[in-house]
User: Fold these one by one.
Assistant:
Number 1:
Amino acid sequence: MTLATEVKKLTDSKPFYAVAGAGDYAVEKLRELPERLLKLESRRAEIAKDLPGKARTYADKAEGFAREFPEKARTYADQLTVLATEVYEDFATRGRKVVSKTTGEAALELEEVSEAAEPAVAAPVKKPRTTKTTTKATTPKA
C-alpha cells in the first residue's frame, strides 16, 4: 500500500479527528490557564482560611457517601458512557474543522509556492526565413 493511501485512510477516520479536536481543546484551555492561576492566587488566603471548616464538614458526610456509593457509581457510569460518547463526537467535529482549516491553508500555501516556482516561459523562437536557391545540377565529366 502506498504512503498516500495510508495517510488518506488515517485522515478519514473518526479517531483521527477526535484526537485533533482534543488537541485543539487542550491548547485552548492551556491558553486560559495563566489568567485562572492569577485569580486563584488572589483568593489563596481566603481559600486557606476556609479549608479547615470545609474539611470537617466533608469528613462528617463521608460515611453517608460510602453507603450510597455503589448505587451512585452505577448511575454515574451510565451517565459517563453517554457523556463520553457526546464528548467524542464533539471532539471529532472540532477536529474535522481544525484539519479542514489547516489543510485548506496548507493547500493555499502550496498553490502559492507552486505558482512562484513555475519556470518562466520563454518567448517562442522564430525560425530564420529560408530563401530558395536554385542550384544547377552538374554532371561530373568523364
Number 2:
Amino acid sequence: MHPFREAVERRDAAAIEALLAEDVVFTSPVAFKPYPGRAITAAILRAVMQVFEDFRYVREFASEDGRGHALAFTATVDGRRVDGCDFLHLDEDGLIDDLTVMVRPLSGANALAAAMGARFDQITREAMEASAG
C-alpha cells in the first residue's frame, strides 16, 4: 500500500503534506489550470478531507518502475456519489511531484466543484500563510 493511501485513510494531513515535493503540481478535476506548489496542494487536500464523506480507496495500481500510482476511490459529496482516481507520480526522492485527480459522474463533479468553491478563500489563505511561514 502506498504511503499516500495510508495517510489519506488515517486522515493525517501532516503525513500527506510530508509526502509532497516542494514543486508538486496538483491538477484538480474541477479547475481549468493546475496548482503548483506544496502549500496550495496541501491546503486543497485538507479541504477535500472535509468535503468527502464516506471516502474509501477501492483499488491501487503501480507502474513497473514504482514511480506511478493510481488509487481508485469512492466517496459522497453533498449526497452525490463520486467515483474517482488519484494519479500520483514520484520524483527521484520518492516524493509526489504530480497529483492528478479525476472524478465522475458529472453530478458528483459538480457537487465537488461547489463544495470546494465555497472553501477556496480559506484554502488560499492557508496556502499563503504556509508559504510565508
Number 3:
Amino acid sequence: MAADSDPVSDTDGGMPDDVATARLRSRLAEVEARITAQRRLVDGIVASVRGENVDDEHDPEGATLAWERQQAAALAAEAAAERDELLAALDRVAAGTYGVCEVCGRPIPAGRLEARPAATRCVEHAR
C-alpha cells in the first residue's frame, strides 16, 4: 500500500488539513468539557463551606478542602493552557503552517501529531 493512500501512517510528516482540523476540534471539545468539570468541582467545594467556620487545615483525616480546591483549580488551568495550544494549532491549520516544525521547517511526523495534536516541533527538536 502506498504511503500517500493512508496519510496517518505517513512517517515523513504531514496530515491533511481536514483530518487535522477534525482531530483538533475533537480534542478541543474534550478539553472544554474537562475545564467545565473542574470549574464546577471548584465551585462545589467553595459552596460546600460557604458560611461555615471550617478548619480543615488541622484535620488528620486526609486531604484538606483547600488542597482539593487547589488541585481542581490547577487541573482547570492545565486544561485551559492545552485549549490555548489547540486554538493556536487550528490557527496554524488555517495559515497553512500546521505540521511544520517551527525550528527546522520540516514536516512533523503524522504519528507525533496524532499523539500531540498541538505539537510545534518535530521529534528531533522537541527534545
